[in-house]
């Protein structure tokens, strides 16, 4: 049993962590709601591509021809990545930018993996969903915006933990789920806040904590690049960067020989932050539900097309990769997305009711409220 | 005045919901097909619980 003074301390933690983060969490929950369905929304708006119906064939187009076709579309730009989608085995995606190391893409193309035909160019940085995404990821404030939202996420986690500690003393005389509707609006919303908060707790904690990990994506990959990747390419450090990389098809074939039971996630081109100055890196994915979320980098010499080394990603990158589906809710089909949205709406109700309770009672001390706890119940029983 | 509830009375449902939610979050991550179905049912549990107690009239 908590003492009166420790309840008071936990209450202050709950109040202040919540007050600081609530406005930002409301923003994240509201912008996150449409983002859960971004695939479906993009498809409905026509920002997607379906490979044309062709007779069943094992024929695969040469990747180097696709790269040449992409370069012909933007002669001044460089190819940064070739991306595969396990759900769309008949498509290759090519990301281009002003130069191979640029942070922002200039084009994102889809090609038919069977014929090599150009199919579609995705619109970049436009539309309502892009505004939602930017508000959700960094509030248009770049890396610092992202890290700030990560800090707010940490406060949310502290608020949820302190909320659980307070749940005990506040529910001492109330059956689970009891909502006192007849006495006052504030009591009704206090009970609803406790009910919705405890029901959605684990989901909200997981989505909050994985969101915090996602805000650290840039430093996490930075650590991998300056640590493991730099270490793998160290023997080549004194050699000049390649100007014209060799065959990417050969590189992919080589990667497949060392990871025969895996499929390609993406290939980073030489000079990109995810590759080396003289190397392609092919990021291979497993084929089980869990391992398909993970990546295994294969370092390939860009001139000879031979495999140099392959290493498992360190735990902190694996933690980031596992955090993504657990934050997005995109790993169990449309029904899971709908449940994700319902839990998100319930979380908005928890945030909103918490804010309402603070506005209603901010002039009353916690002592007075603790004194009132059993009395409220007495009236209820009378 | 009504006597206080025991710890078990207070925490049984929250702990149960927490375990079911954890199972639901994990199931679809580890298994396709049946894992997805388990995650839908398990993660619907906190939603249904919140709505059931939240909107019922007593």
How would you describe this structure to a colleague?
The complex is a heterodimer of chains A (382) and B (58). By secondary structure, chain A is of the alpha+beta class. Chain A has a domain at 4-39 and 132-215 and 333-381. Helix content of chain A is 54%, strand content 12%. Chain A has helices at residues 4-36, 38-45, 63-73, 128-137, 142-170, 185-199, 201-215, 217-233, 248-258, 315-328, 333-361, 366-381, and strands at 78-83, 91-97, 107-112, 118-121, 263-268, 279-285, 296-301, 307-310. In chain A, a hairpin with a 5-residue loop joins strand 7 and strand 8. The longest helix of chain A has 33 residues, at 4-36. The radius of gyration of chain A is 26 Å and the shape is elongated. Chain B has 58 residues and is mainly alpha-helical. Chain B has one domain. Chain B has two helices and no strands. Chain B has helices at residues 7-30, 34-55. In chain B, helix 1 packs antiparallel against helix 2. The longest helix of chain B has 24 residues, at 7-30. Chain B is elongated. The two termini of chain B are 21 Å apart. The mean pLDDT of chain B is 93. The A-B interface holds A 164, 167-168, 171-179, 181, 192, 195-196, 198-203, 206, 289-290, 293, 322, 325-326, 331-333, 335-336, 339-340, 342-343, 346, 374, 377-378, 381 and B 1-2, 4-5, 7, 9-14, 17-18, 21-22, 25, 28-32, 35-36, 39-40, 43-44, 46-47, 49-50, 52-54, 57-58.
Short description:
The complex is a heterodimer of chains A (382) and B (58). Chain A is 54% helix and 12% strand.
Provide the fold topology.
The complex is a heterodimer of chains A (382) and B (58).
Chain A: H1 4-36, H2 38-45, H3 63-73, E1 78-83, E2 91-97, E3 107-112, E4 118-121, H4 128-137, H5 142-170, H6 185-199, H7 201-215, H8 217-233, H9 248-258, E5 263-268, E6 279-285, E7 296-301, E8 307-310, H10 315-328, H11 333-361, H12 366-381
Antiparallel strand pairs in A: 1-2, 1-5, 2-3, 3-4, 5-6, 6-7, 7-8
Helix pairs in contact in A: 1-4, 1-5, 1-11, 5-7, 6-11, 7-10
Chain B: H1 7-30, H2 34-55
């Amino acid at each position: 049993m908590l003492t009166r003074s420790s309840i008071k301390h936990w209450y202050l933690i709950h109040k202040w962590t919540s007050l600081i983060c609530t406005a930002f969490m409301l923003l994240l929950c509201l912008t996150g709601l449409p983002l859960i369905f971004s695939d479906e929304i993009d498809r409905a708006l026509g920002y997607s591509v379906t490979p044309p119906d062709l007779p069943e064939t094992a024929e695969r187009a040469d990747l180097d021809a696709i790269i040449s076709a992409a370069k012909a579309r933007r002669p001044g730009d460089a190819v940064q990545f070739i991306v595969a989608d396990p759900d769309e085995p008949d498509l290759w995606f090519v990301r281009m930018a002003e130069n191979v190391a640029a942070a922002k893409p200039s084009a994102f193309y889809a090609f038919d993996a069977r014929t090599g035909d150009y199919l579609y160019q995705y619109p970049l940085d436009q539309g309502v969903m892009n505004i939602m995404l930017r508000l959700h990821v960094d509030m248009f404030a770049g890396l610092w915006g992202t890290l700030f939202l990560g800090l707010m996420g940490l406060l949310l986690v502290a608020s949820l933990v302190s909320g659980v500690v307070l749940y005990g003393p506040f529910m001492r005389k109330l059956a689970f789920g009891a909502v006192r509707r007849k006495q006052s609006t504030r009591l009704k919303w206090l009970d609803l806040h406790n009910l919705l908060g405890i029901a959605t707790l684990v989901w909200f904690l997981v989505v909050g904590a994985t969101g915090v990990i996602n805000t650290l994506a840039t430093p996490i990959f930075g650590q991998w690049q300056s640590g493991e990747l730099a270490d793998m390419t160290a023997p080549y450090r004194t050699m000049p960067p390649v100007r014209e990389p060799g065959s990417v098809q050969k590189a992919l074939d080589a990667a497949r020989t060392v990871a025969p039971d895996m499929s390609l996630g993406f290939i980073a081109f030489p000079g990109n932050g995810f590759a080396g100055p003289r190397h392609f890196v092919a990021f291979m994915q497993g084929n089980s539900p869990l391992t398909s979320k993970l990546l295994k980098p294969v370092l390939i010499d860009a001139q000879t097309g031979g495999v140099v080394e392959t290493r498992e990603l360190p735990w902190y990158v694996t933690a980031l990769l596992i955090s993504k589906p657990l934050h997005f809710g995109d790993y169990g089909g449309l029904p899971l997305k709908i449940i994700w949205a319902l839990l998100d709406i319930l979380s908005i109700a928890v945030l909103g009711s918490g804010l309402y309770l603070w506005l209603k009672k901010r002039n009353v001390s916690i002592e007075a409220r603790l004194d009132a706890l059993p009395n409220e119940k007495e009236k209820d029983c009378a | 005045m009504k006597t206080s509830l025991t710890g078990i009375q207070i925490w049984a449902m929250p702990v149960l919901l927490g375990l079911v939610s954890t199972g639901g979050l994990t199931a679809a991550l580890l298994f396709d097909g049946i894992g997805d179905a388990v995650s839908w049912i398990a993660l619907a549990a906190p939603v249904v619980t919140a709505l059931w107690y939240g909107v019922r009239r007593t």
